[in-house]
Amino acid sequence: MKVKNITNPIFKDLKNHRLINIKNLVEFNDKTRDKKIKSYKDIKTGVIFLKDYKRGLKYYTSKKTNRTFKKNLSYSNFTINKKILKTSNLNDDLRRYNQFKTIIKNKIVLDYGCGKGNFLKYSKNSVKKIYGVEVNKKLLINLSKKYNVQDSLDKFNNLSFDVITCFHVLEHLPNQIFLLKMLLKKLKKKGTLIIEVPSAHDKLLTVSNLKEFRDFTMWSEHLILHTSQSLKKFIKLAGGKKINIKFYQRYNLANHFGWLIDRLPGGHDFNNIPNNLNRLYQNYLSKIKKTDTLIAIIKK
Q: What's the pTM?
């Protein structure tokens, strides 16, 4: 197909490093959940990317959350078909702490893009020291009251880290190979970099008539949905060598039933499915490599 006027900077990296071929591109979706931005997919490599780049640093420094908080739970508010829908968010920060606590134990850790700082909170008693990077001005002010959090990696001039985490941040950024290179440079010898991103392998993205899911999943903030191959290639181009890519499923069977039956998010809020069945389903998707999430663990 003919593609022109693509402003997404990732397009050049994908093309230059043969992760996509213009001849293999098809239109994946005609919009994102919040804007009229097209997305394309390479039918051979599976990489999915946005046509346009609309969300720069200025947007993230002043962005207001669409989340509401009640006790230890948070909820996101979406407008779908002119109706406001409220769904609970997964406690990913607690899950990540439990998932990686043996890696971060007694280590000097940096969480790049730490958001509200919940991963810092869960980890602080297990690590030797913990730091963060967060560009949002309001979040940064609040975080700085409790932690050493800066708005730039450059502010940690004389520090290096045993472990650096970067959870669902990379997909927002236009210069991903450069960032990965900078993160790897800040690692100590034998350090570990952990990257988590949304995945182009997501099983629901293969359901051809489930446009509602594509309309919701594609987002102006997410410039790319990586495949395991494209993520590994970007890391290698940044200088990473010992790379382990894991397929991880965040959302459960109940959530998928919500999409398939009601064509709406939030199925996990109405969970009549036993936890062990949800886990079996999530493990099955990991086994067949059709998960909503990719996790890269890079050893220096």
A: 0.95
Query: Can you give the residue ranges of every domain in the chain?
Result: 89-201+229-299
pLDDT category at 67 given cuts 50, 70, 90 is: confident
Average pLDDT over residues 52-56: 96
Name the nearest CA neighbour of 68 among 59, 56, 77: 77
The secondary structure of 81-110 as a DSSP string is: TTEEEEEEPP-HHHHHHHHHHHHHTTSEEE
Structurally, at CATH architecture level, domain 89-201+229-299 sits in 3-Layer(aba) Sandwich (3.40)
In this prediction, what percent of the chain has a pLDDT beyond 90? 86
228-237 and 176-185 helices, crossing angle to 10°: 60
Measured distance CA(178)–CA(104) in Å, rounded: 24
Residue 252 in tokens:
């459960």
For residues 36 and 285, give the distance between their C-alpha atoms in angstroms, rounded to a whole number. Answer: 31
The position carrying tokens 């730091």 is 131
In the block, which residue shows the tokens 């997305």? 39
The DSSP 8-state label assigned to residue 199 in this structure reads B
CA separation for the pair 74, 72 (Å, rounded):
7
Encoded tokens for 29:
């979706």
In the chain, at which residue ranges do the beta strands (DSSP E only) sit? 25-29, 39-42, 48-50, 67-70, 73-80, 83-88, 108-112, 129-133, 148-150, 161-167, 187-198, 224-225, 242-248, 293-299
Confidence of residue 65 (pLDDT cuts 50, 70, 90): confident
End-to-end CA separation in angstroms for the chain: 40
Bridge partners, 294 (sequence order): 197, 247
Residue 249's alpha-carbon distances to 55, 90, 227, in angstroms, are 27, 12, 14
SS3 15: helix
